[in-house]
Amino acid sequence: TWTSANIVEEQIALIREQVGDSRVISALSGGVDSAVSTALVQRAIGDRLTAVFVDHGLLREGEAEQVELDYVAATGVDLKVVDAREQFLGHLAGVTDPETKRKIIGREFIRVFEAAEAEVLATPGPPVKFLVQGTLYPDVVESGGGEGAATIKSHHNVGGLPEDLEFSLIEPLRALFKDEVREVGRQLGIPEAIVGRHPFPGPGLAIRIVGAVDADRLRILRAADAIVRQETTAAGLDSSIWQFPVVLLADVHSVGVQGDGRTYGHPVVLRPVSSEDAMTADWTRLPYELLERISTRITNEVREVNRVVLDVTSKPPGTIEWE
Ligand code: XMP
């Protein structure tokens, strides 16, 4: 029978068997999946795990700090932080195609991990042979890993990996859906603030900027997204929303009037969705009062944004993310 305790026990045994005497590097992103998979592997092999957090500069406001402080405080995991913000922005410059963005980000992730591996290898100990990935069952299916499934998007943690990958993968969540992952996380004692976090894509805000990614566009999207999260939390609605992407239409301008004058700014799209497993989703019927507060605050506080629009498309036909 399925219980989170059984899953933890079973996975710990499997991880120990797979890893043997080797050391392991984990990809910690700040999301639920990598937090839980990392905690599972740590539980199995202790200090032979080094968690690497790549700050790719594509996270939301405050998230890098949450990984570096809160998660470490909660788990005591051995964390190596790599500041790769310049590197990612440089490679993404001018790139607008969503799949190309994903492939670049997946490729740079692996490069950074290889560099981190070299540093870990320079310390005495067994060889580093494995990389932890927080791949879930829906990721496997959507990337064509399931029987007869077509490739819809090459999620960087499954389909976008480069062919010269040096690590074998440990994917302890591969058979699980999100709600099951949260249960496993609770079983492992990870704080609710992390376990209850909404899913966030590995490529981060890069796939929520429709158009090329640069530091200024990231700043604008981060500011709008932070307002959405503050107001949603204040309204007590976090746990009734599966995910709430905020999308910046960076190449679209529209005319507005803000303050004393005419503006020619960007729209942001609100994409709140309700879902069980991200494979299908419905747009969330948010209270008008919340939408009004979000709209007023964004257009007042983020001067580059003069229009806030609501995405009322279910999945299918729309995917949750815009890219
Ligand atoms: P879509 O947009 O396909 O998203 O409906 C389904 C779920 O997957 C997340 N997502 C990603 N996660 N790498 C990830 O790790 C990716 O490239 C990626 N693309 C989408 C998305 O946020 C949603 O939860």
TrEMBL record:
It catalyses: XMP + L-glutamine + ATP + H2O = GMP + L-glutamate + AMP + diphosphate + 2 H(+). It is an enzyme of class 6 (ligase). ATP binds at S29, G30, G31, V32, D33, S34, A35. Residues 2-197 form the GMPS ATP-PPase domain. GO terms for cellular component: cytosol. Its EC number is 6.3.5.2. The keyword Nucleotide-binding applies. GO terms for molecular function: ATP binding; GMP synthase activity. Keywords: ATP-binding, Glutamine amidotransferase, GMP biosynthesis, Ligase, Nucleotide-binding, Purine biosynthesis. Coiled coil: none annotated. Pathway: Purine metabolism; GMP biosynthesis; GMP from XMP (L-Gln route): step 1/1. It comes from the Bacteria. Homodimer. Catalyzes the synthesis of GMP from XMP. This is GMP synthase [glutamine-hydrolyzing]. The chain holds residues 209 to 531 of 531 of the full protein.
